Amino acid sequence: MPSKSSARLAALTVAAVCSTVSGVVLTSPAHADGVRIHDIQGTTRISPYAGRQVTDVAGIVTGVRGYGSSKGFWIQDPAPDADPATSEGVFVFTSSAPKVAAGDAVTVSGTVSEYVPGGTSSGNQSVTEITRPVITTVSTGNALPAPTTVDARSVPDAYTPAGDPAAKNSVNGLTLRPKKYALDYYESLEGMNVRVADTRVVTATDPYTELWVTVKPHENPTRRGGTVYGSYASQNTGRLQIQSLGSTADFPAATVGDTLAGTTAGPLDYNQYGGYTLVASELGTLRKGGLERESTHRQSDRELAVATYNVENLDPSDDTFADHAAAIVHHLKSPDIVSLEEIQDNNGATDDGTVAADQTLGKLIDAIVSAGGPRYEWRGIDPVNDQDGGEPGGNIRQAFLFNPERVSFTDRAGGTSTTAVGVEKVRGKARLTASPGRIDPASSAWEDSRKPLAGEFVFRGRTVFVIANHFASKGGDQGLTAQYQPPVRGSETQRHAQATEVNGFVKDILKAQKNARVIALGDINDFEFSGTARLLEDDGALWSAIKSLPKSERYTYDYQGNSQVLDQILLSPSLRHPGRYAYDSVHINAEFPTQISDHDPQVVRVHL
Questions:
Q1: Is the N or the C terminus of the chain less surrounded, counting Cβ atoms within 10 Å?
Q2: What is the domain-level CATH number for residue 526?
């Protein structure tokens, strides 16, 4: 079996070769003497020396990474050229813990390579590196090159040349324009020592000791300190990921709205989990912003409260039941109906054919009672084993909780995991052929994905149709910093098909009864401005009620510095009269370093 280092070198070679596909012709291997770092970096993303041997490249060590699979160190030329497009820093990949220290003046001979984090199929940009290095230490204890300040004035407002046909094929061969495009600006600093100062946290510290800040505090701010992702053309250029170059033990547990006060500085890296990343050898001091978890208003006697909540792979072995119960009772104020996503079967990820989830739901219901809430009842349909995606063996599905003291469920036999629920007209009213039932489970739209759960509820004598959804994930989509601009969102093809199915089913209900009350909700895994949302809303059958909120409050999830919408509640025309409903995105999870789910629940209160 090849060693990790040889496998890595093979990957580097493949990455360099694959770069030629996008129009960059690599020079055949040869030695290059008297080369400086800015010559290696060049004015595009791919080094003009890729695949070539270089000799005695001089620089000052600015940071050392002796952990993980990408061990090595950064060097920087203290005498920069006059071209802002050429970086003065480069990463030296050593494969084992480096024997240099920050402040060492070194010369490095080796092979210039282009390494693509995540592999070439990821679509990520590459990192220019010197591999198989021979290192000579010339002196020690030298002052580090002064860090370049990254701030609101230096980062352009435009993100990338996404409208350029050449960018769609790949930005690799395009000459960097760091004064015009943010991604070009960051690329022009790849490997260099950079600093940010007094930056606001826009994604909380995650389990991998990473957080995101913004150097543009006035760029699309949320009401609570984050940064709203409001369109595909507004990617928020001030976002930057922060990692620690040293021990992670002292990494701050930051919440959205906190500030990294003072200077945070270190080499600018690029990785597969977010792109450009400041690997900090100096971390600012965490100044708390005081953000607290939200609570919504309790519904009145005449209001029907319906919520959606992704409980993140909940199974009986979890220790989060009391916390989820507290969230439902105290923060959501015990909604009348709760659509739960990611309910797992009774033994979780154990893949032994178990599909029932009565123990999971029963344990949650008991916890809600213990928290002072009502004793909910539940309805759901067990999926076919290992057919609905999610964690292998977990058999995640949607399920309804409802408060029988406020709402009744219309049970109608016939709903199974493989039977399609239909709509019929009886005495001028729409009704489901089965309740609960699943929407067209045999359709290719739901392959390896959760099937929507439809049910009939009655509140104060009025029937309400509720459709619980969990659409296909965004897994496999290219990141915002991909070499292809705009990035390819391949996963949305299935969500578009799913949205069309749900929209068609709602239209069947409205055809049978024009004024039928329909609520479609859940983890849609797509934005309120997306093609998925437009297909769900087609012909006015539904409308995403989160759009009733101010833009600064439209988010349910926080990812890579962008506060964004993934969870939605959509209303049919008879429910969306002005003043007759109130929507709330209840922020209890996404903005905090401690989470019981990575999604914030949503609730709508409707006057019937």
A1: N
A2: 3.60.10.10
